[in-house]
């Protein structure tokens, strides 16, 4: 199933669960669609989805955490920090805080307005990081267009391309 969160006015936690059911905690509205479910939350939301579900989040006003969801994750804007752990392929338009990813199948991000950190992911593509950027144990290509701070890349098993780093770079 596809899970769409239109807007969450607080923090959003999405976890993959072993049951083929959707569990939601918080103040929310839900609508069943032909593809799955559409949710909107007022305040903090905690959602447990089937592990292989696809998750699409349009906007989170607070922090976002996605853990154990192996389906594709498409995320619009996060106005706090974003943490992805053991996730499937993920695409994020913008994070207005820090980004931390560990164990993601692949990760593509438009903008991070804080520091960005990735460990044990597949391919990594970052357009703009307005803080420091660190990546470790990446099993695919790494493409970074611009970093305002330092760049620290270690254990990269694919091609590396860094367009511009305004701090020091360790590759």
Topology:
Layout: E1 2-8, E2 12-17, E3 23-32, E4 36-50, E5 54-60, E6 64-67, E7 73-78, E8 82-85, E9 89-95, E10 99-102, E11 106-112, E12 116-119, E13 124-129, E14 133-138, E15 142-147, E16 151-156, E17 160-165, E18 169-170
Parallel strand pairs: 1-4, 1-5, 2-4, 2-6, 5-7, 6-8, 7-9, 8-10, 9-11, 10-12, 11-13, 12-14, 13-15, 14-16, 15-17, 16-18
Antiparallel strand pairs: 3-4
What's the short story on this structure?
This protein is mainly beta. It is built from no helices and 18 strands.
3D architecture notes:
- The chain has 171 residues and is mostly beta strands.
- The chain contains no helices and 18 strands.
- It has strands spanning 2-8, 12-17, 23-32, 36-50, 54-60, 64-67, 73-78, 82-85, 89-95, 99-102, 106-112, 116-119, 124-129, 133-138, 142-147, 151-156, 160-165, 169-170.
- It has an 18-stranded mixed β-sheet that branches.
- It is globular.
- The relative contact order is 0.13.
Order of helices and strands: EEEEEEEEEEEEEEEEEE
Helix fraction by DSSP (H/I, runs of at least 4): under 10%
**Coarse structural class:** mainly beta
Q: What is the general shape?
A: globular
Query: Low-confidence segments, ≥5 residues, pLDDT <50?
Result: none
Largest sheet: 18 strands, mixed
**Rg from Cα:** 16 Å
Number of strands: 18
Distance between the termini: 40 Å
Count of alpha/pi helices: 0
Strand residue content: over 45%
Mean pLDDT: 96
């Amino acid at each position: 199933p596809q899970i769409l969160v239109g807007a969450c006015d607080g923090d959003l936690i999405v976890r993959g669960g072993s049951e083929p059911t959707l569990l939601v905690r918080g103040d929310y509205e839900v609508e069943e669609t032909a593809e799955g479910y559409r949710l909107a939350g007022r305040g903090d939301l905690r959602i447990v989805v089937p592990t292989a579900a696809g998750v699409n989040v349009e906007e989170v006003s607070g922090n976002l955490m996605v853990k154990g969801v192996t389906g594709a994750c498409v995320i619009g804007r996060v106005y706090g920090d974003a943490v992805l752990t053991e996730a499937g392929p993920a695409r994020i338009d913008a994070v207005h805080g820090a980004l931390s990813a560990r164990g993601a199948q692949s990760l593509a991000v438009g903008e991070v307005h804080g520091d960005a950190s990735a460990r044990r992911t597949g391919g990594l593509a970052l357009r703009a990081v307005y803080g420091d950027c660190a990546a470790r144990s990446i099993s695919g290509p790494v493409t970074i267009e611009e970093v305002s701070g330092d760049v620290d890349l270690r254990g990269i098993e694919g091609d590396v391309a860094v367009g511009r780093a305004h701090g020091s770079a360790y590759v």
